[in-house]
Amino acid sequence: MADAAVTVIGGGVVGLAVAAELSKTQSPLFVLERREKYGQETSSRNSEVIHAGIYYTRNSLKAGLCVEGKHLLYDLCTQHNIPHRRITKIITATAPGELTDLERILKLGNENGASLSMLTAAQVRSLEPHVVTLGGILSPTTGIISAHGLMDFFAHAAEANGAVVHTHCTVTGLDRRAHDYLITIDESGRRSAFSSEIVVNAAGLEADTIASLAGIDIDAAGYRLHYCKGCYFSVPNSYRSVVTRLVYPVPCTDSLGVHVVLDLGGRVKFGPDVEYLPNRLLEYSVPESKRTAFAASVRHILPMVRDEELTPDMSGIRPKLQAPGRPARDFIIREESDRGLPGLIDLIGIDSPGLTASPAIARYVSSLL
Question: I want to staple 133 with a disulfide (CB 3.0 to 4.6 A). Which of 9, 52, 124, 172 is the partner?
């Protein structure tokens, strides 16, 4: 017998959700996380939004898993006291040409199950008097959540089922044998190996690296990831009363645009922008030099914001399957038997709405077993 029934590589929100789900029926189950604690990368460096499922291609994994995950998340939050707010969201058109875009977004979002409604400019202003608008869309099921609270819930649920979360643990080898996988790990300089019948690759920023260790040609498979950094700026507490919900612009080609973000403490932030990083650089600084461009983007929505009011806040790095300037790609969630790797499930390019979709992704992975 193998040492583990299932090994989940990656202790972000998706890996932990998968562990919580699979540990109901699979044991022993290990979660391997290279950082000192789970959830230290993409999962804790984002807008913490429960997305409605608006923008994603009809019948894509992103669309279906986002909508399913949204409903599962609200149920989990209510049942287990995970901090959250169903805060709602407005997408505002600020130029005449964007009104046609709103019609397209409304149709797509409602086909996906997002329950959107169109708003006139007067209706937007009645909800958010300070927002620039020629009309908008209301998303009543958009919310915000404590990402750390959610990850703590998944981790504790997995551990209660007997799963073990190993931190400071980097996977350096993944070799298919006759009936299992030999996984080589490095724990703070100590190397060892163990066997696992099933491997779930939920390694986030390094998911393509793990796939490559298993022998997959990541370029031929379309698995190569690109690191995309997004920065946030915050404003003084006086802005807490300026907006009461999330406000997004009409999205551009490669992102949802710099938007108004509220956290559970009521702080107002703006972001993220889009910056592809060279050489897979993990670099999280928020340069002061971005302030002017950020302020100009922000003023399309809230014209009273002055450059000097913006303070560098945080940044995150997202694993994008699409290269700069290329069309958005769907999640890859795939069991690799046809590549001679039975029992390996790859999760590649799990960017937004990965947090929202996490409990639905876990169920989807379970179905692949």
Answer: 124
Distance between CA atoms of 202 and 165, rounded to whole angstroms?
14
Q: What CATH number did the domain enclosing 244 receive?
A: 3.30.9.10
Is residue 55 assigned to a domain?
Answer: no
Q: Has residue 72 been placed in a domain?
A: no
pLDDT tens digits, residue range 175-186?
999 999 999 999
* Number of compact structural domains in the chain: 3
Which domain range does residue 339 map to?
4-45+148-224+328-368
SS3 per-residue string spanning 120-175: CHHHHHHHCCCCCCCEEEEECCCEEECHHHHHHHHHHHHHHCCCEEECCCEEEEEE
Distance CA 262, CA 264 (A): 7
CA distance linking residue 340 with residue 342, whole number of Å = 6
Q: Which pTM does this prediction carry?
A: 0.96
Is 275 inside any structural domain?
yes
Averaged pLDDT for residues 258-275: 93
CATH number of the CATH domain containing 346: 3.50.50.60
Is 236 found in the same domain as 197? Answer: no
236 contacts 330 by C-beta, under 8 angstroms:
no
- Per-residue DSSP letter, 207: H
Q: Please report the pLDDT score of residue 115 as a whole number.
A: 96
Together in a domain, 155 and 176: yes
- For the record, the structure tokens of 5 come out as 């029934």
324 contacts 225 by C-beta, under 8 angstroms: no
Residue 268, SS3? strand
Could you tell me which residues are beta bridge partners of residue 4?
196
pLDDT band at 255; cut points 50, 70, 90: low
- Please check whether residue 82 lies inside any domain of the structure: no
CA distances to 6, 30, 195, 199, 206 from 180, in Å:
10, 15, 6, 9, 22
